[in-house]
Amino acid sequence: MNQLVKLVMALALVAFLATTALSAEGGNPRKGKALFKKTCKECHSKGAAAGEVTPLTKTMEQWDRFFEKKQHNPEGLKGLSEQDLKDIQQFLFDHAADSPQPETCG
Q1: Is residue 103 part of a domain?
Q2: Which DSSP string do the residues of the chain spell out, in sequence order?
Q3: Structurally, how many domains does the chain consist of?
Q4: For residue 34, what are the domain limits?
Q5: What is the pTM of this model?
Q6: 100 falls within a domain
Q7: Residues 65-97: tens digit of each pLDDT
């Protein structure tokens, strides 16, 4: 039984490290949530012209690809620093549809 517990713990650690490696390195998800609400929700809320976007809109991998390929309209990112973008990416990644803590960002 003790070996089984160790194996489960080791697998959980590997899974955690694998998903963490995909995320925005150095991002602060708490700051990212505040930035998302302040700068993104205006254009990306229900009924808005740009369409509703929440962390649940994409999977963790899809959010990373979105930011890696810089798919957002640059006009919508004016005034945001690289660190701000990392923070928003980390928030979206941490609460994506397939994350351990999915969230809508009400």
Answers
A1: no
A2: -HHHHHHHHHHHHHHHHHHHHHS-TT--HHHHHHHIIIIITTTSSTT-TT----GGGS-HHHHHHHHHTT-S-GGGGTT--HHHHHHHHHHHHHTSTTSSS-----
A3: 1
A4: 2-94
A5: 0.72
A6: no
A7: 999 988 787 677 888 999 999 999 999 999 999
**Tens-digit pLDDT profile for residues 2-56:** 776 565 565 554 454 444 444 457 899 999 999 999 998 888 888 888 889 999 9
Residue positions counted in the chain: 106
In a domain, 14, yes or no: yes
pLDDT tens digit string along 53-68? 999 999 999 999 999 9
Residue 71 lies in a domain: yes
Q: How far is the C-alpha of 15 from the C-alpha of 99, rounded, in Å? A: 12
Selection from 103, 88, 89 nearest residue 36 by Cα: 88
